[in-house]
């Protein structure tokens, strides 16, 4: 069975990859002169996807005003470009993707309930890779063949038994992205094309010389401070409030990154910040 849209345009947009101010123009386009720098009219993704499919990755990152406009397109098939007053009509199938709990986001007021209801016409929840281990060998072979082709190998001779077992036994906290990275690294480092890949490295940072900020060092530092909360100065001492708050903020950012394997979206959620708010704070403290 094929959808009537199978040969129509398939347009993608990652909502987390754009500043909040640009998502609206990317989705709906803009008229010439709509804002500074808008020298000519630009067609948005909804127009590009007319009679086809628009795939919105990380849709939870869209602001509430943008969500309202997306809802209008879903319900009425109509919108205006930014800076325009002409109503445009489109027929688009919308697919939204996210790694957060959208019903919980809606209950917290960060996602519109009415938009969630419209998007929930059909919902597909993809389980983590560790819950579908039959996919591991298939995906690993696919990524390995693609990497071997990129390296100019005549063929890919698979993984050794030990390497295959290692891939199957690992829990893959980073899911498919981590699997792809691990497999591509293994193929790239393999020095014997024509023989099975026999070495798998899951943590490329593993080294006895790796500089670390261990929990024991943190505990030692905390124990050496005055009584009170970690990093809290003595009550009778003068305080540089701005500097102290900055130190606390930086420490929380670093802890959130470490707790979420440096996944910035997950770390932002950990601190109840939007992705862009989190990125701005990382830049502020020179962490990126």
Q: Summed up, what is this model?
A:
43% of the residues lie in helices and 7% in strands.
Write a concise keyword list for the protein shown above.
288 residues, mainly alpha, Rossmann fold, Helicase, Ruva Protein, domain 3, 3 domains, three-stranded parallel sheet, two-stranded antiparallel sheet, 12 helices
Pairing-aware structural class of the strands and helices? mainly alpha
How many beta-strand runs? 5
Q: Give the SSE string.
A: EHHEHEEEHHHHHHHHH
At CATH level 3, the topology of the largest domain is: Rossmann fold
- Low-confidence runs (pLDDT<50, min 5 residues)? 226-230
Instruction: Tell me the count of domains.
Output: 3
CATH superfamily of the largest domain: P-loop containing nucleotide triphosphate hydrolases
Largest sheet: 3 strands, parallel
Shape descriptor reads globular
How many angstroms separate the termini?
Answer: 47 Å
Radius of gyration, whole Å: 24 Å
Q: Mean of the pLDDT scores? A: 87
Which band does the percent of strand residues land in?
A: 5-15%
| Helix content range | 40-55%
CATH architecture of the largest domain: 3-Layer(aba) Sandwich
Spatial ordering of strands, largest sheet: 1-2-5
Q: If helices are DSSP runs of H or I spanning 4 or more residues, what is the number of helices?
A: 12
CATH class of the largest domain: Alpha Beta
